[in-house]
Structure formats: structure tokens, C-alpha cells
Q: What sequence folds into this?
């Protein structure tokens, strides 16, 4: 039997997966095992998280999608609900491995709702999980509230009705039940209180929690980003059009930490990598709320996938805080989205921080109390960006190089879905590999064959490009795996990787958005960035232009910024070493900022100097 530590990959007790000379196999195995080290047993994941995302996006096109997620902890288990979930929800014991639970037949969604729900509003009082069943029927004036004391069974019961509102969330505090709501059609956030027994609205309880936005150019306090023809200064393809309407404060969520209440909402719109959450604070769940100076509180821009809005914040069984959030793809459907999980912390000043720095690199979920600042990240570098790629075949417009460009919106596709089609990557030199993420693309799929919604494949590794070993064997996989993540547990050393098709999903073509490789490049970290200059736009203070001198050896940069030098809570990742400036358009008017630019490559990160803006 192979040892547990390496799952059998390159284990001395596992037979070679491919025919090689006996001597070379021994040498290859010894080299690949060099540097293996034991690690803790905490589950490791990589955003976007790998789930069997539902099909049929907002406009009912053929897109895999999920968004607007909520996770609640109930009786020591985690339950995940999200827009476009089909007929149920998910359960986990560790926030990494999820299983589906189907609604009992009597409460499944009707065909006119597409069998799905949207914008789930879920909360628990410790006795029950409550769920506001928001359906797609916008003509309905009320919506049903159901509850369960046994969510694993899929059985729920009716417990009341509430008036239909947009993007509701249910917040329970000391026995009081509040419903927060708001969407861009009436750009504001409101709340009202309901009776916990009947869910009847308490007369006169509705409160306006933020001003109604009437003019896009007058928005302050982080409500709206600066308007431009193209917002994204990193990659213009990461936007669909530009915003010509008022911002869309939506997806309200409230959490209590100590004696403070944190009300967050998303803006400016879900179809962009700049989708982010703003947070306000109060001493009461009814307000008055004041806008926090460190907004937006969660932002994930740049890198492989972006977006960190319309989220829920929750506490795990050990007292750690997390945020589950929407991330944007937007290829087959503008509302094609995925889910991301980020650690959250509150410092001694009560400031909330969502840890999205390198937010699509591997992170761990320690099964204990931990400090996310030093412990959440695995500390692995990305080894695959811009590396030489090859393939058995290519479709025009989907060349092999696109599976190594760190962009979820581009992909390589083989000319067919036949077994044996392959994608290869040359890392340029031997590197120590800790994990891989294979992000499979839905190229020419047939969604009438949902029983075949999986990719079966093998991943091979080599030191010389001639002699190969199988390091991942998923040839018998029969479950959906659009963002398959493999933690090797023990590192391997290799230069070449090759993903070989066994069976492509849904009778489509074998296609990969990116083969992402994580570990240690075994070379020098880049030089420190020098001469960072940040100039604020005095005509529109939502904008700032950040420039820096190039760093020798850099593969990219992290532009870090925040309202105080001890709270640079926001980061925008700039890929490549050619670009040495960034226009930020998400700043709060009247609020000074501090900046730092860090350089990174496949062998490390070099932290820069913090400077004030000019």
C-alpha cells in the first residue's frame, strides 16, 4: 500500500505508471522525492473553490455558475447555500470538502423557478436554520420562510412569510430577527424587524441605513468606484463594458463582533473583477451606521480570478472568522461566477480585515484557533505563470499559451475530447512542487448529458521531458471537478508537467483555463521595488496614479494600500514585469492613503517601503 504522506505519488511502494528503464525510474524517483518534508494536517484549498457549480446563469445560457453565498455553522457542521444551486445545498466538516444535500421533494423549487433559488438569506439561532425562499417570480409580494433542525435530512418546514424584498439577509441577535435588504433599483440599504415566532413585520421598524444614491458622481464613502470608459488598468478584457448607471449597493450582510455591528454590502456591480464589499459600523443592529475609513473591506483584483463581493462573514467552530464570496468569470454568461473563501480578522482597534493578498493561491484551514496574517497562506509561490506551453492540438483562439497566463477568462482547448489529448508545461528548470490546480474549461459541452459532468485525466511529471511518472491519476473520476486542486502533501521536484485526457466533461473538448503550479522556484527572490510615487487626482479623489521603478527578477507586483500605514488592507495584483504603474479608481473622497509595492516571482516575495501619497 502507498504511504498516506504522498498518496502514492512517487512512493517507493508504488509501481511506475509509465514504462521506463528500471535504473532511470529509481533515479527519477529519488530526485522527485528530494526535498520532501512533512507538513501539518490542516486541509488546504485554492480559490476558486472546487464545487459542482450549478448550470444556467442569470440569462439562462450554458454557463457553470454560483454566487451570493452564505455559510452557517450549525451543530458543528458548515452549510453552504448559493444562487443557482440546484435543488439543495452543501455540507462540510472542514470548509474544504463538501457534499450535496437535496431538498425533500415537498419543498423543492418549481420548474418556473428553474429548480433554483437566488440570493439565499440563511441564518441560525442554534435551534433551527432559517431560510428565506426567494424565488425568481418577481411579481410575488411575499416570500416563504422555512426552517429545519435537521439539515442533513433535507427536510424543512414552513414557519412564516415576509414581504418580498431584493437581496434579503436574515440577522439574528439576542433573540431579535432583522431582515436587511437593498439592490441597485433603489440604491440604498434598509432593515426591518420581524417577530421570531410568526415572522410578521413589526410595524414602524424599518430603518434607512445609508443615504439613497441619486448622482453617480456625488457618491462618497466608498459607495461607488470612479467612472471610466475602461476601469481595469490591469487587463481590459476583465470588464464587460463600463458602468453608465448608479452603483448597485446589494447583498447586505451583518455580523456582530464584540459590541460592534458590521454591516457590509457589495458594489459597484457583480460583473467585474472589482466587485467588492463596503462595510459600515454601529453600536446597534439598527444603526446609525458610519462608513469605515478602510473601505472597500474586501477586494480581489488581478491574478487568476477576481471579485470579492456579495459575501457572508461567519465564525467557525474554533472562533476564527471567514468570508465566502462571489468571484467573476463572465465568459459564457455575464453572470458566470464562482465562489472564494477568505480568512477574516478583527484587530485591537476593531478594524475588519479580509485577507485577499494572493487570494487565489493555496491557503489552509487549521482545525484550531489561528492568526490568519502569518498562518492562512501556505507560503507557496506560483511556478507556472508565463512558462512555455505545448499541446497535442489547438483550437484557433485557444492556443496552449493561454493555459499559463493566469487569466480565468482565457483557455487552451484541444481540437477534440478524445482520450490522449494533452497539455504540457515546461517550468524552465527543476522546481519543488507542492500543489497543482487544474482549471478545466467548458468547451463545446453538451449540457443534456449532466451525468457526464466530470473530467477524467492523469497528470505526469518529468525531469528531462523524456521519462515520465504519473503524479495524479484521476482516470476513474466521476464527479464534477472544474477547479481540481491537488495538494501533494510531500513535495516533488520536476521541470515538465503534462495533463493527459482520459474523458472530457459533457462530451466536450479537453480544455484547460490554466494549469497552475505552486511551490518553490529554487532561485532568487526579486529585488526590492524602489521609488514608489502615488499621486492623488485632485479633480476626482477616487483616483490615484501609482508608479514605481522596475524590480530585477520580478514576475509581477502587489500594489498594497490603505487609509493608515499600519492597515494596508487592500491589494491589487499586477501581472508581468513590463507594467510599472497602476491607476486606482476605488478610493474614498477626502481620505488620505498610504501605499507599498511588493515584487514577486516563482521564488519569493520582496516587501517594499510604505509611502504616503503626494
A:
Amino acid at each position: 500500500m502507498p504511504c498516506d504522506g504522498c498518496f502514492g505519488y512517487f512512493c517507493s511502494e508504488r509501481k511506475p505508471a509509465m514504462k521506463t528503464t528500471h535504473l532511470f525510474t529509481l533515479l527519477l524517483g529519488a530526485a522527485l522525492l528530494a526535498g520532501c518534508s512533512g507538513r501539518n494536517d490542516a486541509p488546504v484549498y485554492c480559490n476558486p473553490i472546487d464545487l459542482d457549480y450549478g448550470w444556467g446563469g442569470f440569462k439562462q445560457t450554458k454557463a457553470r455558475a454560483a454566487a451570493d453565498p452564505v455559510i452557517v455553522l450549525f451543530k458543528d457542521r458548515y452549510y453552504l447555500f448559493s444562487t443557482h444551486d440546484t435543488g439543495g445545498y452543501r455540507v462540510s466538516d472542514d470548509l474544504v470538502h463538501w457534499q450535496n444535500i437535496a431538498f425533500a421533494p415537498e419543498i423543492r423549487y418549481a420548474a418556473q423557478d428553474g429548480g433554483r433559488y437566488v440570493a439565499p438569506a440563511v441564518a441560525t439561532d442554534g435551534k433551527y436554520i432559517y431560510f428565506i425562499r426567494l424565488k425568481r417570480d418577481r411579481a410575488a409580494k411575499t416570500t416563504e420562510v422555512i426552517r429545519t433542525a435537521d439539515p442533513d435530512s433535507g427536510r424543512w418546514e414552513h414557519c412564516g412569510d415576509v414581504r418580498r424584498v431584493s437581496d434579503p439577509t436574515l440577522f439574528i441577535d439576542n433573540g431579535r430577527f432583522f431582515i436587511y435588504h437593498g439592490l441597485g433599483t433603489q440604491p440604498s440599504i434598509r432593515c426591518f424587524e420581524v417577530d421570531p415566532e410568526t415572522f410578521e413585520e413589526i410595524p414602524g421598524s424599518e430603518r434607512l441605513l445609508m443615504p439613497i444614491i441619486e448622482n453617480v458622481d456625488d457618491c462618497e464613502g466608498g459607495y461607488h468606484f470612479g467612472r471610466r470608459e475602461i476601469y481595469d488598468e490591469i487587463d481590459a478584457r476583465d470588464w464587460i463594458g463600463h458602468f453608465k448607471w448608479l452603483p448597485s449597493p446589494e447583498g447586505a450582510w451583518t455580523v456582530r463582533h464584540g459590541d460592534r455591528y458590521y454591516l457590509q454590502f457589495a458594489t459597484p456591480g457583480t460583473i467585474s473583477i472589482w466587485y467588492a464589499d463596503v462595510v459600515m459600523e454601529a453600536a446597534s443592529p439598527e444603526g446609525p451606521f458610519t462608513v469605515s475609513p478602510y473601505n472597500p473591506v474586501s477586494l480581489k483584483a488581478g491574478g487568476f480570478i477576481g471579485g470579492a463581493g456579495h459575501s457572508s462573514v461567519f465564525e467557525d467552530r474554533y472562533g476564527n472568522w471567514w468570508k465566502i464570496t462571489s468571484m467573476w468569470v463572465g465568459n459564457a454568461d455575464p453572470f458566470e461566477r464562482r465562489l472564494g473563501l477568505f480568512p477574516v480578522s478583527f484587530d485591537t482597534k476593531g478594524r475588519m480585515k479580509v485577507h485577499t493578498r494572493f487570494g487565489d493561491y493555496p491557503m489552509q484551514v487549521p482545525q484550531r484557533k489561528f492568526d490568519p496574517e502569518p498562518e492562512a497562506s501556505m507560503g507557496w509561490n506560483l511556478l507556472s505563470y508565463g512558462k512555455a506551453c505545448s499541446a497535442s492540438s489547438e483550437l484557433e483562439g485557444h492556443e496552449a499559451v493561454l493555459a499559463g497566463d493566469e487569466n480565468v477568462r482565457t483557455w487552451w482547448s484541444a481540437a477534440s475530447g478524445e482520450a490522449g489529448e494533452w497539455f504540457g508545461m515546461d517550468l524552465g528548470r527543476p522546481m519543488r512542487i507542492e500543489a497543482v490546480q487544474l482549471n478545466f474549461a467548458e468547451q463545446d459541452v453538451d449540457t443534456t448529458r449532466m451525468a457526464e459532468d466530470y473530467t477524467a485525466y492523469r497528470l505526469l511529471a518529468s525531469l528531462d521531458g523524456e521519462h515520465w511518472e504519473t503524479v495524479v491519476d484521476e482516470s476513474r473520476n466521476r464527479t464534477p471537478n472544474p477547479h481540481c486542486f491537488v495538494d501533494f502533501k510531500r513535495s516533488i521536484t520536476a521541470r515538465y508537467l503534462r495533463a493527459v485526457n482520459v474523458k472530457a466533461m459533457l462530451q466536450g473538448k479537453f480544455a484547460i483555463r490554466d494549469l497552475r503550479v505552486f511551490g518553490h522556484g529554487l532561485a532568487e527572490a526579486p529585488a526590492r521595488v524602489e521609488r514608489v510615487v502615488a499621486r492623488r487626482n485632485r479633480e476626482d479623489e477616487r483616483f490615484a496614479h501609482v508608479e514605481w521603478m522596475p524590480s530585477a527578477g520580478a514576475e509581477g507586483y502587489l500594489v498594497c494600500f490603505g487609509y493608515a500605514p499600519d492597515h494596508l488592507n487592500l491589494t491589487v495584483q499586477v501581472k508581468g514585469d513590463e507594467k510599472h504603474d497602476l491607476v486606482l479608481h476605488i478610493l474614498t473622497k477626502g481620505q488620505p492613503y498610504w501605499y507599498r509595492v511588493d515584487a514577486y516571482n516563482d521564488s519569493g516575495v520582496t516587501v517594499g517601503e510604505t509611502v504616503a501619497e503626494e
Notes: Residues 1-38, 226-246 have pLDDT under 50 and may be disordered. Helices lie at 22-33, 372-375. The CA atoms of residues 16 and 331 lie 40 Å apart.
